[in-house]
Amino acid sequence: MAKRIDVKDLNIYYSDFLAVADVSVDIEPNSVTAFIGPSGCGKSTFLRTLNRMHEVIPGARVEGKVAMDGVDLYGEGVDPVAVRRSIGMVFQRPNPFPTMSIAENVLAGVRLNNRRISKGDAQDLVESSLRGSNLWNEVKDRLTRPGSSLSGGQQQRLCIARAIAVRPQVLLMDEPCSALDPISTLAIEDLISELKDNYTIVIVTHNMQQAARVSDRTAFFNIAGSGLPGRLIEVDATSTMFSSPREKATEDYISGRFG
Ligand SMILES: Nc1ncnc2c1ncn2[C@@H]1O[C@H](COP(=O)(O)OP(=O)(O)OP(=O)(O)O)[C@@H](O)[C@H]1O
């Protein structure tokens, strides 16, 4: 079941460097939220705090609150591994395990979580996950071939299948199409629109047309200068952000005047 994420007064650090300051935003369930903004404003950094991937970097930490359906993800006793299981992530470059078979790639996250699974259940999970990522018809006859035998766009859909196989509630996508050709990009965008029936989706994108095409809400981040923290400038329905943003900086960015 898709869940909502509420962020309140979040400051994000790399050691002493305050990379992103004072973010408060609500991310609605069963919707696609796009993060846009110029390079270095902290979109990826902020995205990684939503499933506690940020703290994997030595010295990296946060102040403030990130809650999923009211539960503080940084609360005492919360297991970061469980957080990452319920909030999955898809990266910029498709990163299937190259020598592992297509089927085993889908199951990799499940196996990592030490879940025992019967052969029949594994087959069902492979099929449902690949159907969920719109890849089943293309690979059903070659599930034992290595992940690296697929095209870039297929590999990215394989990674999405791997992410949804662990049944997350939220999917974070960090520029998932930036390494893909236009056709594969459209396939992933169609898939994102379908996935929001079941998941809450957050996508970082440099492509404004993509944000306009796939997202329901858009959050614009900006940075006033190098060495200064990135900040969330405004967030609203995507149609509003692209037609009548409140802030001039948003309008300038969207209309290509900077960034
Ligand atoms: N591992 C890290 N260690 C230290 N500083 C980092 C690290 N990763 C990112 N930063 C810094 O944090 C700030 C935000 O970077 P981030 O990659 O989140 O921005 P971004 O908006 O996603 O950029 P881009 O659009 O170029 O991917 C930058 O100043 C960057 O140099």
UniProtKB/TrEMBL annotation:
It comes from the Bacteria. GO terms for cellular component: membrane. GO terms for biological process: phosphate ion transmembrane transport. Residues 5-248 form the ABC transporter domain. Gene3D superfamilies: P-loop containing nucleotide triphosphate hydrolases. Keywords: ATP-binding, Nucleotide-binding, Translocase, Transport. It holds the Pfam family ABC_tran. This is Phosphate ABC transporter ATP-binding protein. It comes from Pengzhenrongella frigida.
